[in-house]
Amino acid sequence: AQKITQTQPGMFVQEKEAVTLDCTYDTSDPSYGLFWYKQPSSGEMIFLIYQGSYDQQNATEGRYSLNFQKARKSANLVISASQLGDSAMYFCAMREGNSNSGYALNFGKGTSLLVTP
Amino acid sequence: GAGVSQSPRYKVAKRGQDVALRCDPISGHVSLFWYQQALGQGPEFLTYFQNEAQLDKSGLPSDRFFAERPEGSVSTLKIQRTQQEDSAVYLCASSPWERIEQYFGPGTRLTVT
Fold first, then answer.
1. Centroid of chain to Cα A18
2. Taking the CB of residue A70, how many other CB atoms lie within 10 A of it?
3. Is the pLDDT of residue A97 over 70?
4. Which of A5, A10, A70, B17 could cysteine-pair with B13, CB 3.0–4.6 Å?
5. B57: left (phi over 0), alpha (psi -120 to 50) or beta
6. Cα–Cα distances in Å, from A76 out to A22, A96, B94, B109?
7. Coil, strand or helix: which one is A13?
8. Per-residue pLDDT for B110 more than 60?
9. What's the rounded Cα separation, in Å, for the pair A80 and A101?
10. Over chain B, what HEC string results?
11. Residue of chain A nearest B105, judged by CA positions
């Protein structure tokens, strides 16, 4: 079963506007972590933000914030004041606490974001 | 500072050939991961090393795939008798033990013809 679901294959946003990228997850482990990575066309995966399952507050990193709704098992990424350079693929990923794989990440299929002038 | 590097960046192999993909993690990083990313998909876990020990290889798709990290730094992913379905981008990531985020390399794009 898919552990990370990203239902938006593609999104458009106008420059300077905010955009929300959706992510839902499935786990029975009480200890887990949620990540967002950005993958530009050059291919490298760039870490954006992390939210732990026990964190009381939503994570923020500059223009990125994570809207963590534990009961709904959702971890949406909010990008404020979009810039043209934000155009990329965005991946949501989860690490489960009881994994014996040293915390390997389970990734969703990604959302392609295009920022227009 | 230097990030994770991978070589070659691009590799074209004829079906049946063996290939070796190299990953140089960030110096001092204990954890090293290999992922396979098919076109239009998210990365999928292949294997994990803690220093030189391969602690999990549950994601390796077949016994044609083999990974090693003999001295706990550089790692090599070897694919024997390549098949067309092996065409993908192979990503390497490393992480220091005390941090949770993984730092990814640029990947090796493997095309099997």
1. 15
2. 11
3. no
4. B17
5. alpha
6. 5, 18, 25, 30
7. strand
8. yes
9. 34
10. CCCCEEECCEEEECCCCCEEEEEECCCCCCEEEEEEECCCCCCEEEEEEECCEEEECCCCCCCCEEEECCCCCCEEEEECCCCHHHCEEEEEEEECCCCCCCEECCCEEEEEC
11. A44
Question: Which residue does chain B place closest to A6, by CA atoms?
Answer: B42
Cβ-proximal residues to A95 (8 Å cutoff; 6+ apart), any chain: A32, A33, A35, A103, A104, A105, A106, B100
Contact A105 B106 (CB under 8 A): no
pLDDT tops 70 at residue B98? no
Residue of A nearest to B4 (CA): A44
Per CB-CB distance under 8 Å, the chain A contacts of B94 are none
Kindly report the backbone phi and psi dihedral angles of residue B40, in degrees, each rounded to the nearest multiple of 5, phi listed first. 80, 10
The answer to whether residues A55 and A68 touch, using CB atoms and an 8 Å cutoff, is: yes
Tokens 């993909």 found at: B21
The number of C-beta contacts closer than 8 angstroms across A and B is 66
Q: pLDDT tens digits, residue range A67-88?
A: 999 999 999 999 999 999 999 9
